[in-house]
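Consider today's protein:

***
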Amino acid sequence: MPDASSAASPRPIAVTLQVVSIVLFTFIGYLNIGIPLAVLPGYVHTDLGFGAVAAGLVISVQYLATLLSRPYAGRIIDTKGPKKAVIIGLFGCGLSGVFMLLAGWLDAWPMASLISLFIGRLVLGSAESLVGSGSIGWGIGRVGAANTAKVISWNGIASYGALAIGAPLGVLLVNAMGLWSMGVSIMLLAALGISLAWKKTPAPIVHGERMPFLHVLGLVLPHGTGLALGSIGFGTIATFITLYYASHTWPNAVLCLSLFGACFIGARLLFGNMINRIGGFRVAIACLSVEALGLLLLWLAPNPNLALAGAALTGFGFSLVFPALGVEAVNLVPAASRGAAVGAYSLFIDLSLGITGPVAGAVAAGFGFSSIFLFAALASLGGLGLSIYLYKQGKVMRDKAAPV
C-alpha cells in the first residue's frame, strides 16, 4: 500500500484546515495538562506542606510517565492507527481528572492527597504520549509526509496554546471553587474530545517492515539530545515560575506562562515555514540562541517586567526547536516506522521535563530560585553547540554525496 505522502497534494489552506481539525485533540489534551500546571506546585508546597523538590516532582512525574510510555504509544500508533491512540489517550486524561478530584477531597490528609496527585499525574503522562504523538501521526497520515513540519508546528501551537490558556484558567477555577473544580473540568474536556474524535476519518495504517524501537531511538538520539537540552528552559519556567515570583514577592506569576505561550505561538505562526526554506538545523541554531538569551534575562531580572521579557524571549526561542530538529529526525526512518520515530524523538522532551523538576528544585534549594534560570540557559547553550555540530556534519555528508 503506498504511503499517504505520495498522493496529490491539496491546496495549502485545505491542508492547514485539516491539520488544525486533528491537532484540536492535542489542544484538548494539553488543556488538561495546563489547568493544574500553575496550581499544583503551590498546592503541594504551601497547602500540603511539602518541600520544593516535592513541588517540582509532582509536575515532573507526569513527564517521566510520558517518557516510559512512548515505546508502547508508538507501537499502538503504527499498528492500530493514530486515531485509536488518541481516543485511548483522551480516556486516560479523563481518568487523571478523577484522581485530581480525589486529591482535593483528601487535603486533610496531606500524604494521601499527594499520592493521589502522583497517580493522576502518572496516568496523565501516559495519556499525553498517546494524544500528542497520535495527533502528529494522524495529521501526517492525512496530509502526507511532505507536510511533516506543518503538522508538528501546528501540534506545538495547539499544545503550548493550551498550556497558556490552561494555566490561568486553573488558577481562576481553584480561586473560585477549590481544587475539585480542576478534576471535574478535566473529565468534561476529555469527554468532549472523545466525542469529537470518534466521528473523524482515521489515517491509513502504513504497511511495511517496521524498525525496532531501539534502532529508531539510536537514529534520533543526537536530535533528541538537542531537544532535551533546549526543553529544560520550558520545564524550569512551567514548574518554578510561581515560586520564583513568590521569592521576589512579585505578583501575577501566571502571566509569565501565558506570555511564554503567546510568544511561542506567534513565532510558529510567523516563522514556521522557515524550516522547509532553510532547513531544520539552521532554525534550531537561531532558536536556541534566542532561548538562552531569554533565560539569562530571567536569571538577572531585577523586576517583574524584565522577567516577563525573559519569558517572552524564551518562548519565542523555544518555539521552533521541536519541529526544526524533529523534521530532521523523522526523515531518517521509513514511513512504516513514523510513529516510532515521533515517539522516540518526543521521549527526549519527556526525559528533559521529567528530570528538570527535581534537579532544578535541588539547585533552587542550594542557590535560590534565580539560579535555576542560569542552569537552564547553560543547557540551552549546550543544545546550541550540538545543533551546530549536527548541521556541520550534515553539510559534510551532503558535500560528499554531491556529484563531482
Notes: DSSP finds 15 helices and no strands in the chain. The first helix runs from residue 12 to 34. Residues 1-9 have pLDDT under 50 and may be disordered.
